[in-house]
Design goal:
Radius of gyration: 41 Å
Shape: flat
Distance between the termini: 85 Å
Structural class: mainly beta
Number of domains: 3
Number of strands: 36
Strand content: 35-45%
Length: about 725
């Protein structure tokens, strides 16, 4: 047995050397680690924090782009838009691997009422303020009426008296005489005499309405609107109109006949429904006939037959009407057969409408009034696929005196449900003798009254309520209003670009005309226009009075405010080693800065939506204001969060000129804004102090930019988008 002696490390020189070696190595490793932790980790952390600054800047840039897109959608689609969006924001930098410290959280906040942006109109003396007072402009008043306050050269087709405006009487188009000739007419016409003689024909296209003092048709002449109503359906299409016939339900089926005075006939085997009945027998109104339904083809070749067109409408209205013979007709067209032996045929178009209305009406001799429905088309195959017959139209005669004798009887297309083409129906006839006649040669269909330009006396005018009193008689009056700094309204929008003043709750008033794009506070001159319309030539709307209120200061005091916005989204970093940063979105600009006071030195990553140019010595300012709304909110942490934005409201103002303008900003970033305005204005070619002056107040934290228009004014194009914000 061998016995080993235990080694004493403390006495063994080799062992001592080994221990010292290990300790030395550990010391070196520890020293290297300490150096790395004390020098490299901070540098890496600082580098990560610097990268995070750029990442947050990119996030804010995306936020700016998103809000710009919301504004663009609002501009294109108006109140119908539902534009929304979400922008994620990375709140902290990445952690240095293994030895890095957990990154501290940053803060993000939204304050809706902070950082106001205001556009004001300077008063005539160059200062902002109105001086108080009020006034109103009313027509008529105790001494002046409409005749004293309107532009005769810029008013049309209206009769103007002291206390009312109404549509003017028709100016007759002279005489309409057809002698051995033909003529096409459509729409509404007014004549003194209408004479149709010696084998002449007046063709009516669509709806023809004739007003005259006298109408005469001899036995050899005609007035016709046959097949000139609503269109029949093509292959496999329904006919046009309320009573349009339906196409067949199956292949080879015939289309239904159109309805009007009665229900249209069904196509073969009831597979193509007849059109519905519409209108009424007794009122002083007529309509055009509807189109028959198209037939259905037999695949794979050919096409179904087209439905017949409906008859047009003929309305004769005169003091004296004498129809001694000839024909007045508005018959529907026949349906057509298909292009293949087994294709369904089209349904017949319904008869149209004939209305004769006069004080003395005589219809005698061989005179014929006809508004028959067209027959359904025949199937090429024999017994199947025929179209339904079109219903008869409506014939109405209203005469205060005279003699009316007609042979037509009421009928319908119901008796022809489509076998090999159903027959069309006869028109319904209504005669009302002894009906009191009111001449229809009374009023133009539309006209407009343009007021003179009214001088309120001050450039600080703030406009308020507009009211008017009118008797509409079932017709309409559209009110428009515009303002300008010039008495000749040279910078005001043209009337077609002025929106209608929409009445509130059915009343003839609007509480604040300054909400209109064509009206701006700060304008001295105002003008309105009343556009009158009637659908019935026998009546007219009547305008009795107009009143506009105004004040010489803004509701809260001071000069007129053209626009105001506020709201700020602000990110503040909380770094260990890198210089802390602020990123801010306000008024369409993205600002990056450092420091606590002194204007927070920095620069704009994205410029605001403000363009300032020199238009031949006239300052022109184009501003897209962004107003941020919502609840105050702040968030602190290291996890990624998001900013949600959604459209709330859009306001557009027509380009307008003002004597002088001032842009006022209340902002913590006054130095940055002041530098941007000074640089932008210098680049525009405008000069200071002639065109503008920029004032930066570090104590009050404000920036004021004054623009001077001199004799030409300052041009302003303004729009404002309100965006809701939620973090």
């Amino acid at each position: 047995m061998i016995i080993k002696k235990k080694r004493n490390l403390l006495l063994d020189e080799n062992a001592v050397s080994e221990v010292l070696g290990v300790v030395l190595i550990l010391t070196i490793v520890l020293s290297a680690t300490t150096i790395y932790l004390s020098q490299q980790v901070p540098e890496l952390t600082k580098d990560f924090e610097a990268r995070h600054v750029d990442e947050v800047a990119d996030d804010f840039s995306e936020l700016d782009s998103l809000i710009d897109r919301i504004g663009l959608v609002a501009k294109q689609e108006g109140e119908s838009t539902t534009a929304t969006g979400t922008t994620p924001l990375k709140m902290s930098p990445d952690k240095v691997p293994i030895f890095g410290l957990t990154p501290p959280g940053s803060s993000l906040g939204f304050i809706p009422q902070k950082e106001t942006f205001v556009i004001q109109v300077d008063d005539v003396d160059g200062g902002v303020g109105g001086g108080g007072g009020s006034g109103d402009w009313m027509i008529p008043n105790a001494t002046h009426g409409f005749t004293d306050y309107y532009l005769e050269d810029d008013s049309s087709d209206v009769d103007v008296s002291f206390d009312e405006v109404k549509l003017a009487s028709y100016t007759p188009e002279g005489d309409l005489t057809l002698n051995e000739t033909e003529r096409w007419l459509e729409g509404e016409h007014s004549y003194d005499q209408v004479i149709i003689v010696n084998n002449s024909t007046l063709y009516a296209y669509g709806f023809l309405k004739i007003h005259a003092n006298s109408i005469y048709v001899d036995p050899s002449s005609n007035i016709t609107a046959d097949g000139k109503g609503l269109w029949g359906g093509t292959s496999q299409k329904d006919g046009d109109g309320i009573g349009g016939g339906k196409t067949g339900a199956n292949e080879s089926a015939g289309g239904g006949g159109a309805g009007y005075g009665e229900v249209g006939g069904n196509g073969s085997d009831n597979l193509g429904s007849g059109g519905s009945k519409y209108g009424d027998e007794y009122s002083t109104s007529i309509q055009m006939g509807s189109g028959g339904g198209g037939g259905v083809p037999k695949p794979p070749v050919g096409s179904g037959g087209s439905g017949g067109n409906g008859g047009g409408a003929i309305w004769l209205d005169a003091e004296v009407i004498n129809i001694t013979g000839g024909t007045i007709s508005a018959n529907g067209d026949f349906g057509l057969s298909g292009t293949h032996p087994k294709s369904g045929a089209g349904g017949g178009g319904s008869g149209g409408g004939i209305l004769i209305k006069g004080r003395n009406v005589t219809i005698s001799g061989t005179a014929t009034l006809s508004a028959k429905g067209g027959g359904g088309g025949n199937s090429s195959a024999g017994n199947d696929g025929g179209g339904g017959g079109g219903a008869g139209g409506r014939i109405k005669v209203f005469n205060e005196s005279g003699s009316v004798s007609l042979a037509n009887n009421a009928g319908s297309g119901d008796d022809a449900t489509g076998k090999d083409g159903g027959a069309g129906g006869e028109a319904g006839v209504y005669i009302s003798p002894g009906e009191e006649y009111i001449s229809s040669i009374t009023h133009c269909s539309s006209g407009y009254f343009t007021s003179e330009v009214y001088d309120t006396g001050r450039n600080s005018t703030c406009y308020g309520n507009m009211t008017w009193n009118a008797t509409l008689n079932g017709q309409t009056i559209e009110m428009k209003v515009r303002t300008d700094m010039f008495e000749d309204m040279r910078a005001a929008p043209d009337w077609p670009y002025c929106p209608e003043v929409v009445s509130e709750e059915g009343q003839n008033n609007i509480s604040d005309i300054n909400s209109l794009s064509s009206v701006s506070d700060g304008h001295r001159y105002i003008q309105y226009r009343a556009e009158l319309h009637t659908d019935d030539a026998t009546t007219t709307p009547v305008l009795h009075s107009v009143r506009i209120n105004y004040n010489f200061s803004a509701p809260g005091g001071g000069g007129p405010l053209l626009g105001i916005s506020s709201g700020i989204i602000k990110f503040q970093s909380s770094y260990l080693y890198y210089l802390n940063q602020e990123l801010v979105y306000e008024h369409g600009a993205v600002i990056k800065c450092q420091g606590q006071d002194g204007g927070k030195r920095g620069f704009m990553l994205h410029r605001p939506s403000i363009d300032i140019t020199n238009e031949s010595g006239i300052p022109k300012i184009v501003i897209s204001m962004v107003d941020l709304t919502g609840s105050d909110y702040s968030y602190s942490g290291s996890t990624t969060t998001s900013v949600e934005t959604s459209y709330t409201k859009y306001i557009y103002k027509c380009p307008a000129a003002f004597p002088n303008l001032t842009i006022n900003l209340s902002t913590d970033y006054y130095s940055i804004w002041g530098e941007w305005f000074n640089k932008t204005l210098k680049e525009s070619g405008l000069t200071t102090p002639y065109h503008y002056n920029v004032s930066v107040n570090g104590t009050a934290k404000t920036v004021a930019v004054e623009f001077y228009g001199h004799e030409h004014g300052v041009q302003l194009d303004l729009e404002k988008t309100t965006v809701a914000v939620r973090i």
